[in-house]
Design goal:
The chain is of the alpha/beta class. The protein contains 12 helices and 7 strands. The protein has a single domain, classed as Rossmann fold, CATH 3.40.50.150. It has a 7-stranded mixed sheet, with helices on both faces. Strand 2, helix 4 and strand 3 form a beta-alpha-beta unit. Helix 1 runs antiparallel to helix 3 and helix 6 packs across helix 7.
Length: 269
């Protein structure tokens, strides 16, 4: 899709209405942004979600994908709810039943290909092109890197990868974004929206975006020392982290501008 769909606002609004009551940690402008990416990424392939929890992002993606005929959303999660997004390493009961219930209530059960498994188990046999890779699973560095390494090789030219919680105090998403994406010669346009980090696969013309990518990397990399120990920040460290994070641009993107950034002809062939 190389033009902004004329009904995009209505579609995202409707998708948000179905999403907003689903339990989860994705805030409204983040949910709307991943819905926009799902609709506007100018590449063919599958939408893959790693980390579904109770279905908040899944519903948003599935509603948009269904409307535009983009095929089922592949949702991967073992649903053991290991608190890798926290700092205590504890576990809670399975979220699988609530996840399925959320899909059913939103009317998107048939629009989601469920993989009740760890991402590494699925990636071991994966062989499909990916147009949008949404990573919101294990937020440890090892977990986020395994998610990225397992599926990023299948991200097509023009496809987009996005990681949730890259601007929250977790080591995985921000380290993967800085070290594997911003410092790579494979990616072009990149940025943050709220706590989401995103980038487009542009191996053919990534050098065009080198300076803007380096500028973003220099700001985002300053967050790395704060998250390496995977511990809750307190006192002066927490204040310093927030001040450093405030220097990273993360404002919402106007939909028409996003389409313009993503849809150059030399990307989509």
């Amino acid at each position: 899709m190389t033009q902004l769909p004329p009904d995009i606002d209505a579609v995202i609004d409707e998708a948000w209405q179905a999403t907003k009551d689903v339990p989860g940690f994705l805030v409204e402008n983040e949910a709307r942004f991943i819905g926009l990416l799902a609709a506007c990424v100018p590449a063919k392939g599958t939408i893959v979600e790693i980390g579904s929890f109770k279905g908040r992002s899944t519903v948003m993606l599935a509603k948009v994908a269904s409307h535009y005929g983009l095929g089922p959303v592949v949702a991967i999660d073992p649903h053991t709810h290991n608190l890798s997004t926290g700092h205590d390493g504890g576990e809670r009961r399975s979220t699988y039943d609530e996840f399925v219930s959320s899909l059913r209530s939103a009317g998107v059960g048939a629009e989601v290909e469920i993989h009740h498994a760890a991402s590494t188990d699925v990636s071991a046999t994966w062989n499909r092109d990916i147009r949008f890779l949404w990573i919101d699973g294990d937020h440890s560095y090892e977990g986020a890197k395994a998610d990225f390494d397992g599926f990023a090789p299948f991200l097509v030219c023009g496809g987009v990868v996005a990681l949730h919680d890259a601007l929250n105090n977790f080591p995985g998403p921000i380290r993967v974004f800085v070290e594997e994406i911003l410092r790579s010669k494979r990616f072009g346009p990149a940025g943050f929206v709220h706590s989401i980090a995103w980038a487009q696969s542009r191996p053919d013309d990534a050098s065009v975006f080198l300076k803007t990518r380096e500028n973003l990397e220099s700001r985002a990399a300053r967050l790395l020392p704060f998250v390496r120990e995977n511990q809750q920040l307190q006192g002066l460290q927490k204040i310093r982290y927030k001040l450093t994070r405030a220097r990273v641009p993360r404002a919402p993107i106007v939909p028409s501008n996003l389409v313009q950034i993503l849809s150059r002809r030399d990307v989509v062939g």
